[in-house]
Specification:
four-stranded mixed beta sheet, alpha+beta
């Protein structure tokens, strides 16, 4: 079966051909997909490499579910490192592991500290209680 690789995209890939392309990383256990395109994610058979690996090695992905990484290595397609979750689950996982630019900040955009007492989670994102209280006060002042 012919396969074409361009900028992280592969067409007509079989499970056997997958093993000729994926690069195992023994210490980490990751299987890296080479030549990932924009954003670090490759494509296989017209779909995201993560989705392809999950569906090929684990099973169907229900509507509305995302394929997330346990290892947080963007190019990893090892099914043992993948799990299903909602967009909120993925964001919560990212924040819990302190991944992403906003997750490593210790203050909100108005300078209030992200302490356990001043922080709550809404739809997978950290929120500042002080800012929420201030917004509620402004809203009451205008009503």
């Amino acid at each position: 079966m012919a396969k074409t690789i361009m900028r992280g995209c592969v067409e007509e890939l079989t499970k056997d051909a997958f093993w000729q392309i994926a690069v195992p990383v023994p210490i980490a256990g990751c299987w890296l997909w080479p030549g990932t395109g924009g954003g670090g994610y490759g494509k296989i058979n017209g779909m995201g490499a993560l989705r392809w690996a999950y569906e090929t090695f684990i099973g169907e992905i229900p509507n509305g579910m995302f394929v997330c990484h346990r290892c947080d290595v963007i190019g990893c397609v090892n099914p043992d490192h993948l799990f299903l979750g909602t967009n909120g689950d993925n964001a919560s996982d990212m924040h819990r592991k302190r991944r992403g630019g906003y997750a490593i900040r210790d203050k909100c955009k108005h300078g209030h500290p992200f302490t356990p007492e001043n922080t709550y989670t809404y739809r997978g994102a950290r929120c500042c209680r002080a800012c929420n209280r201030a917004a509620a006060m402004r809203s009451k002042a205008y009503s």
